[in-house]
Every structure is written in C-alpha cells, then in structure tokens.
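A reminder before we start the practical. When you read a complex entry, don't treat the lines as separate problems. The point of joint prediction is that each chain is placed relative to the others, so the output describes one connected object in space. Small molecules and nucleic acid strands, if listed, are placed in the same frame. In the example below there are two entries. Take a minute to note the order of the lines before looking further.
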Amino acid sequence: MARATYAFVPGHVTVFFNPVRHADPARTGSTGAGLTLSDGVAVTFEPAPETRVVLNDAPVTVEPVDRVLGSLSATGRVAVESALPLGEGFGVSGAMTLGTALAVNAAFDGTQTENELVERAHVAEVRSNTGLGDVVAQARGGVPVRLAPGAPPHGALDGIPAATALEYRSFGELSTAAIISDDVSAVQSAGERALTDLRAEPTLERLFELGRRFAREADLLTPRVETTLEAVQAAGGEATMAMLGETVIALESGLSDAGYDATACEVHPAGSSLCLGRP
Amino acid sequence: MARATYAFVPGHVTVFFNPVRHADPARTGSTGAGLTLSDGVAVTFEPAPETRVVLNDAPVTVEPVDRVLGSLSATGRVAVESALPLGEGFGVSGAMTLGTALAVNAAFDGTQTENELVERAHVAEVRSNTGLGDVVAQARGGVPVRLAPGAPPHGALDGIPAATALEYRSFGELSTAAIISDDVSAVQSAGERALTDLRAEPTLERLFELGRRFAREADLLTPRVETTLEAVQAAGGEATMAMLGETVIALESGLSDAGYDATACEVHPAGSSLCLGRP
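Here is the predicted structure of the whole assembly.
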C-alpha cells in the first residue's frame, strides 16, 4: 500500500577531498573528510502519477532527485524542508536524493536494502555531477572520513568520534560542477596529503587545520572566506571552508566569538534515517 | 584534560545468527540480523585512579567493560543507566563496552577512530564470550544485517530500512556463553539459511518470520517463548525470540494486542554516539 513516508538526512560539509573517477559511477567518488550537521533535510514522499519536487514550499528541479526517482521507477510528490541552502556546500542535493530514495522505498514497501539505496543515491549524484562523497557521508553521520571512494560495498568509511557544537556562515554559492569537472590535479594531491595526515592524527582540531591547508593548496579560498578564517583564528577559534560553497564552518562558537552572524548547530550523531512521522 | 564524557548505545536484539570463529578475535563474530532499540544504555565516564563500574546505581562487574578499559590503559568511574536488563538478549554488555570505549577516548582526548573503538569493544566481547555481533550492530543502528563477521574493516554490514514501533517482554536470562560455546552446528546451518533467505527478501516481516524458523531449527525456543510467539501470531501480530534471552520482541503493539504486559520502544534510527551532555 502506497502511503506518505518520511526521512531525515543530515547536512554534510566536506572539509577536504580527493576526487576519484571510474568508468563505474558506483566506484566513482572521493576520499576525504567532513562534518555531518544536526541541521539537515526532512523529506516527505507521497506517491502520485506525476512527480513534483518542492523545497521549502517552492517548486524546484534537482537533477539527482529526478534520477533516483527514475532508478526506483517511482513518481510522486517530494516535499523537502531544509534549514540549509542549496549549492552552498552543505550537501543539500545529496541529502534530498538520499532522503527521497529512503522514503520512496518505504512508501512502496520496497525491498531495497540501506546499502542499495545509498548506492542509487550516490550514483544519481555522480551522474548529475552534483557530488562525489556527500551521500555516503550522510548515510554514516558523525564526522565521516572517506577512506576509499564510492558507494557500498566499494567505498570504505571511518569516523572521528566527536560530539561538539558548530557554527556556520554562508556568503554564497560556488559551482560544484565547475570545480569537480575542471583540472583537478592540485585538488587531488592536496586532498591525498590531507587524508594521510588526518589518519596519523585523527582529531577534530587536526581536521580543521588540514582543511585550511587543503583550501590554500587547492586554491579554493575566496577573499571573504580567507578573511573570515583569519578572524576566527585571531579570536582563538577553529574554522575552515565548506567544499564547495562560499561557506565557513567553525568549532563551537568560533564565528560569533569573532563577531560574525552565524548559525549554531551540532555534529549529527547519526546518519540518514527513515522517520515514523514528519521529522 | 580529563573530564566527564557521555555516550549512548542502543540496545540490540539478535533475531538470528551464525557464529564464526577465527584465531584473530577481530575476525571472529557472527553473521545474522537483528533490531537496534531506542531503549539502550547511557554511559558516563570520569577518569579516576581506580576503576568502578555501576549499572543503575549498583556496583557490577562486566568482564568486557574491564577488558576495554585495559585495552585503552584507562581507569575511572563508569556509570551506566540502562532501561534494559543485562543477560536477557538486549546486547547490554556490548552496549556498555562500546559506550565505555567511546567515552574513555573522548575523556582523554584520545586519537582512536570510531572503527578502532568498535574493534576494541568487539574484541573485548569476543574474548569474554559475551557476544559475537552486538557491538558492530549497535555501532550502525537501524535494523542491521551482518553479512560478514568481525570488527571493521573485516566485518560487512547492510541494513533493512525501517522506522517502526516495537514491543518487548522478557521472562528471564539465558546464558550467551553456554550457547555460543556449545556445539553450534545446528545454529550455524539454521543461521546461514536464514541469512540467505533474508537477502532474497529483505523486509521486516520476513525478518520476523525467519527469526521464528531459526529459533525452531536451532532448538532455542523455551516453552514460555513458544507460547508467547503463538499468542502474538494468533492476534495477527509478528514476534520473534531475542537471541539469547528468554525474551520476545514484536512489531508495533503485537505483544499488548495479545494481552501481554510489554515495553514499547522503536527501532533506533542511528547507532552508538558520543553525546554533548548526559544522554
């Protein structure tokens, strides 16, 4: 019996990454590390003859959401409530795609497993060129470290155990597609070096420090982000850039301590999940 | 700086399992499937020169907790609040052990990753003969399916995507150690067959049905459990036996619909996690 179903997927800020392409989109992805956020995306799905996707009550077209619906041969109304903006480095397209996959399977009493739904959402993101590592990180939660690229069972994850308050501040969009389709050798070498160094010292403080080094080495800093990172450090805090948005994320109250308007949240303890009722 | 730290670990009911022994305890474990519960174990750890473990305010000795403290070279006060009884098939020893590992690492600003802490807790359980699959399932959350035995990176997990209400009722203890140390060929063949059949049809209803078949084939049913399972089915519900306790778990209100006093909870959406404050 088709019915309305609900899923919640945490936001995800990539701190550093190394894109890895493969002929198989399920093996394409990125290694790297990031933070999942208690702010995220709540998806409500209701089967219907025509598909309609709305984000915070406004109609929207999000290619990987359409792709994942197609891959599950489903149509219906996808209603998304998001505290986070699309396109600013919070993994909102990945969250919408994974949340849709989970909710659609539940609505039709489907027989996909969690790993299969994560793979479908990951492949939809890879094909749409909208993300390489958000979906697998969002499925895990916490502070995910992507050791090997791709969807399960190809990808491999670990995590930095951490419960902490965070703050974020966005200054605008950067195009994920332009940057991850471009020449990526500087990104790759910086990302690989950062992962090696994080594995030698897997702590939150080291993650932020390596994020700043990655952003400089990969030449991804914008002037506003650079100024903000310097201000947070001058105030004794830890901050780094969200990949890929003109967005800064800080430990605890790092941004407001430095005088910025910022939104507070926490590391999300869990990963994506179905919900019994509206999240 | 040492300080008090907090972790929450969901309860875990194994529905069926196939024990797999290996010379390396990190590769020892079980395949199978189960349900993590929103009822679980909250651990508070405070470093101290002497170790003291209390469960719901009563001093207690739990061998794998002592082992995991030893493996992290830590001593201190482990205070556990548990809604679930020890020894009745809810994975409480695994939850206490994993929660202790997470909280100890955080208290000492340790550099263990999540996977490393899961491995330490899993190995402590295996060496104590108190569990073979609870820890890895509790680290994942949801409705975990254990495809390959052991701690990360050896073990492999998937999950049945499900948000549902549950009920449980315990009639008493069964000795995990006696059963998983015993001749296990009937358990192994029943467990292997159940996993094959669940993978062909990975749904909650099938999980409960295969759990009942496993309990019969492995000859683990007690008279009280058998009577209760029959009563729940007669009332139109789905129930199965918790491995290993004299305990019945039912979908939704299956036990109370059949006239039993039962405790209500839900599938836990997430896995184990550190908490910012007392859970």
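Discuss with your neighbour: The mean pLDDT of chain B is 95. What might explain this?
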